[in-house]
Structures are given as C-alpha cells and as structure tokens.
Write a structure and sequence with these properties.
Elements lengths: L11 E7 L5 E12 L2 E6 L4 E6 L3 E6 L2 H4 L4
Antiparallel strand pairs: 1-2, 1-5, 2-3, 3-4
C-alpha cells in the first residue's frame, strides 16, 4: 500500500514508518522530493537528510506548527 505524499512536497509531515530492522517509529520529516518508490526528506528528529521507502510508510499526517517546535 502506497500513501500519496506528492501533495506534501515542501511541507512538514508526521509519518509512522517501519525501518529496515522492522521497528515501528514516528518521524517528523520535511518532504523534499518523491523519486520512484522512495521519498527524500529532512528528518527533524535525526536532524539530517534521509530517504524513506514509500511502501514502509504506514501513515502520514501534516504536522502542526506547535508539533515542529517540540524537536529542539
């Protein structure tokens, strides 16, 4: 199941993600581009660019401004 994140390019989004170790994590990311079956984004929690597999994203929701400021 692929979630359509195309509409979130340039926005900050909370995702629920299954990593390669099969751990479920919540990430707050800024979506930069969608390329094939992956998404290039800046992870606010890790403070670095990351690539996520679209088929590993379980859910996505736009982040509110207040949520973003809690990552300090």
């Amino acid at each position: 199941m692929f979630i359509n994140l195309q509409r979130y390019i340039g926005q900050t989004v909370d995702i629920i993600y299954v990593d390669r170790k099969e751990q479920i994590t919540k990430r707050t990311i800024q979506v930069n581009e969608i390329e094939g079956e992956s998404i290039k984004a800046f992870c606010l929690g890790k403070n670095s660019p990351r690539t996520f597999r679209l088929d590993h994203i379980l859910s996505a929701m736009p982040t509110t401004r207040e949520d973003v400021t809690t990552w300090s």
